[in-house]
Design goal:
The chain is α+β, with helices and mostly antiparallel strands. Helix 6 packs across helix 9, helix 8 runs parallel beside helix 12 and helix 13 packs across helix 15.
């Protein structure tokens, strides 16, 4: 409810001696909205893994964009209060508010940008595509804005709110590794822990810099673990596969200990990377559904992760004077990686009718059968049965008998594979697919009336490279702005 105190318009929880601070009710709305968006992101990933293409107005999209819209409405209300009391210039002068507004705009804008990207350049379903990463950076910057605001407050609720805001930052950052966490890797497993380590280091460095709590990183990682556990239960209730439970509490504890003992950025990065690999490698290899990290992956990935994290912690500590070089290097690496993957396609393209599709799994042998409607049968010829996982593509002959298509191939690794029927009609490729999981014993996945589609050609033109570089630049600018905001006021740890 609006109140008037000392001539100021206020909301409950809004300080009159710090009139630019956000009211508690608006912080809660922004936090709930951002959490809804993050849950929607995991839900959307599970939805497209199981069902593939669907309309825009599916429940995960509504949860995501309604959540961001709610956060945007809360920030807008905060901005209007600040502008009313101190003038429009005060909105941009209060940096958490300014960054939050920009972050919401970028996150909402990443959706049409993603659609235009697919229209212009064809399929590019990997999470590391430029529009997807821009959206992730937007939610990360939104979390950083909320973190910077609540960490500077002295009210009783500020400490738990700081932990929850830190969990929001960590969830946003770690979403960059969601394909590995949900057993839908588009790249080699080599990149799993370097990607997770780098993004988690960015989030934990922000949390440690912003918060005055002694165990800020560990507490935020624990809250993040609880959030993903809740997301997993929610998805299982809807009969979707849950994401793997994160194991970042121990690596975050290493960061807190390093901060308390004033270790150098290099030592902090090495300790964080070592604990990350010590925890993740045996757990994922022994208990995971499919993502396995080999000795070769460790030999290459561990030093790479330690180096990248050392740079992050050095930047956070203000000890790197060559930040532009580090940012440029990160941009080049980010630009190079997505181009090497041929992502599992969720079904983008013009409709090509429906198919009764089934994949039977016996050990490592997958047999696909597809039954076409008679009106499309005569015009359609077989090409291959195709399986894709982690940048690997396997092909085998697809045979046609009447209107039935059949093909078999061997899937050499456990985990979720996407098995396609690749056909041809009027000189154009026709595809349809189903996901199957190797390692769970004999199984059969089937769907009558599964959609088929004409996949668009994938473009690697110079225009795509330039557009991707521009979107990655926007992503990096948001991350740098979030770091700058948090480093601007570093409280003493108590």
């Amino acid at each position: 409810m609006l109140q008037v105190c000392n001539g100021y318009v206020t909301l409950p929880g809004m300080s009159t001696d710090q009139p630019n601070h956000a009211p508690l009710v608006l912080i809660l709305i922004a936090g709930i909205g951002a959490t809804s968006a993050l849950i929607g992101g995991y839900w959307d990933d599970a939805w497209h893994t199981e069902h593939g293409r669907d309309s825009f107005l599916i429940a995960p999209h509504i949860a995501t964009y309604a959540g961001i819209a709610a956060a945007g409405a809360a920030l807008t209300g905060w901005g209007l209060l600040v502008a009313y009391r101190n003038g429009p210039q005060a909105v941009w002068a209060h940096k958490p508010l300014a960054l939050g507004l920009i972050a919401v705009a970028v996150t909402l804008g990443s959706a049409p940008a993603d659609n235009l990207w697919h229209v212009a350049f064809g399929r590019d379903a990997v999470i590391w595509s430029p529009p997807h990463m821009l959206g992730i950076a937007g939610t990360l910057a939104l979390g950083a804005a909320v973190l910077a605001e609540v960490a500077s407050r002295r009210e009783r609720w500020a400490a738990p709110a700081t932990v929850l805001a830190g969990a929001m930052v960590l969830t946003s950052a770690a979403f960059a590794a969601v394909e590995y966490e949900t057993d839908v890797p588009q790249f080699s497993e080599l990149w799993y822990l370097p990607a997770l380590g780098l993004t988690a280091a960015i989030a934990l460095a922000m949390i440690r810099t912003a918060s005055r709590l002694r165990w800020a990183a560990t507490l935020s990682a624990a809250a993040y673990t609880a959030l993903i556990g809740g997301v997993g239960l929610f998805l299982m209730a809807l009969e979707f596969s849950p994401p793997a439970l994160p194991l970042l509490v121990a690596p975050a504890l290493a960061v807190d200990i390093a901060a308390r003992r004033a270790w150098s950025p290099a030592a902090t990065g090495a300790a964080f990377a070592a604990v990350l690999y010590i925890v993740y490698v045996p757990v994922r290899n022994l208990l995971g559904d499919g993502v396995e990290i080999s000795a070769g992956d460790v030999a290459v990935g561990l030093p790479l992760t330690a180096l990248a994290c050392a740079v992050v912690f050095a930047i956070a500590a203000g000890r790197v004077r060559w930040r532009r070089l580090a940012v440029a290097t990160a941009a080049l690496v980010a630009l190079a990686l997505p181009g090497s993957a041929f992502g599992q396609d969720p079904g983008q393209g013009d409709p090509a009718g429906e198919v009764d599709l089934a994949v039977a799994l016996d050990g490592e042998r997958a047999t696909l059968t597809a039954e076409l409607a008679r009106d499309a049968c005569a015009e359609t010829s077989p090409r291959a049965v195709v399986a894709r996982r982690a940048g690997v593509t396997l092909r085998a002959p697809l045979e046609k008998r009447g209107c039935a298509f059949r093909g078999s191939l061997t899937l050499p690794e456990r985990g979720r594979w996407f098995v396609y029927a690749e056909m041809e009609r009027d000189g154009r490729t026709v595809e349809t697919w189903l996901p199957v999981s190797v390692g769970d014993g004999p199984a059969r996945v089937a769907e009558d009336g599964r959609y088929a589609y004409f996949p668009p050609e994938r473009s690697d033109s110079a225009v795509k490279v330039i557009a991707g570089a521009a979107l990655y630049a926007g992503m990096l600018a948001l991350v740098v702005a979030a770091f700058a905001l948090i480093r601007r006021s570093t409280p003493a740890v108590s």
